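User: C-alpha cells for this one?
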Amino acid sequence: MPAINNSTAYSDMQPRFDQALIDIIDYVYHHDIDNSKSEGLERARMALSDALGCVFETLNGSDEARSIIEPVAPGFLFPMGFKLPGTAFRLDHVKGAFDLGTLIRYLDHNDAFPGAEWGHPSDNISVILAVADFFNRAVEPPISQPTTLKEVVTALIKAYEIQGTLQALNAFNKHDLDHTILVRIGFTAVVCHLLSCTNP
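Assistant:
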C-alpha cells in the first residue's frame, strides 16, 4: 500500500469555500477604506452616535432592559472589563457585548435597512466595540497592541457593507433563517480581522 501524505489528504478533505465567502474575506482583508472621504466617516459617526443614543434611551425608559444588563453574579465586576456605556458596570467582554447589543436593540429604535428583508446593521456595533476595548485593556503580549479608532470605524463600515449587500439580495427568512444571521456574518468577518486571524 502506498504511503499517504497526511497533509495532502487532509487538505483534499477540506470543503472549498464558496465564492460569497471568498469575496467577503477578500473585502475585509484586502480592501482599504478611504477615511479621507468625509461621507463615509460622517455616516459611520452618525451610526455610532445613533446606537449610543438608543443605549441611553433604553437605560432611561426600560426597567425590563435594565434588569437584563448586570454582572452574571451580583457585584461581580471585572476591573479590566468592558465599561458598559451609561452604567457603572465593568463586565467580561462577552457579557459586555451582549448587554451593549441588548441596549442598542431593545426598544427597536436603532437603524434599519430594507432589502430583500429588513435588518438592523447597528447590531454589529456591540461586538466591534467589545473586541476593540479588549485589545485596548490587554497588557500582556500578544494582545497588547491597541485598536485605533480608525480600525474601529473601518470595521464598522465593512460590517455594514457586508450585511447590507447580503441583505439587499437575499431573503433568508424565506428559508426559515432569521435575518440576524446577516449580523453574525458581518461582525464575524471584521472581528476575525481585528483579532489578526490568518487569511485562509
